[in-house]
């Protein structure tokens, strides 16, 4: 066998193999590689969009948290104001009730004082009648002199 014929035949077989590969295997392989490259590029773009969306969502959540904190602070402030106003109203109501009770007690004391004064007047009148009757040693008519003694007691 001649080395040149073997070499040429191997070269022809190799050339045919290269043609078959270039015609039937290479294009689908290149197409699959391109599809894979496109999918990877789309995946990277989607990942970048996801990162941007996540950053946006985090910023939105932070803003919502700040808003919620402000609203909570406002609600606490309003509740504190209402509690303060209720406490002030309760204090004022209790002062009014206390003042009414003091006024009622003063009125009751005044009425009792008047009753005591009246009682004292009656006792003074009775003692005056007894004293007068002993002085003049004769019976004094209580009904006829009662008015005069009442006026005398009022002057006392």
Structure overview:
By secondary structure, the protein is mainly α. The chain contains two helices and no strands. Helix content is 95%, strand content 0%. Helix 1 packs across helix 2. It is rod-shaped, with a radius of gyration of 60 Å. The termini are far apart. The model has no long low-confidence stretch (mean pLDDT 90).
Features:
ATP synthase subunit b, 2 helices, 156 residues, ATP_synth_b/b'su_bac/chlpt, mainly alpha, 0% strand, 95% helix
Distance between the termini: 171 Å
Q: Structural class, please? A: mainly alpha
Q: Could you tell me the mean pLDDT?
A: 90
- Name the poorly predicted regions: none
Please tally the β strands and state the result.
0
Element order: H for helix, E for strand: HH
The Rg value, from CA coordinates, equals 60 Å
- Gross morphology is rod-shaped
Taken as a percent bin, the fraction of beta residues is under 5%
Main β sheet profile: none
Helix content: over 70%
Helix count equals 2
Ordered list of secondary-structure elements with their pairings:
Blueprint: H1 3-136, H2 142-155
At a glance:
Its main location: membrane. The protein has 156 residues and is mainly alpha-helical. The chain has helices at residues 3-136, 142-155.
């Amino acid at each position: 066998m001649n080395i040149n014929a073997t070499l040429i035949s191997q070269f022809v077989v190799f050339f045919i193999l290269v043609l078959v590969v270039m015609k039937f295997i290479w294009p689908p392989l290149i197409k699959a590689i391109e599809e894979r490259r496109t999918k990877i590029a789309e995946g990277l773009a989607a990942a970048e969009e996801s990162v941007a969306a996540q950053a946006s969502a985090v910023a939105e959540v932070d803003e919502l948290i700040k808003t919620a904190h402000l609203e909570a602070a406002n609600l606490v402030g309003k509740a504190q104001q209402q509690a303060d106003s209720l406490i002030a109203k309760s204090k004022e109501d209790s002062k009014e009730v206390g003042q009414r009770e003091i006024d009622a007690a003063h009125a009751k004391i005044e009425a009792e004082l008047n009753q005591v004064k009246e009682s004292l007047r009656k006792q003074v009148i009775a003692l005056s009648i007894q004293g007068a009757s002993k002085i003049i040693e004769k019976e004094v008519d209580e009904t006829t002199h009662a008015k005069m003694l009442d006026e005398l007691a009022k002057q006392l």
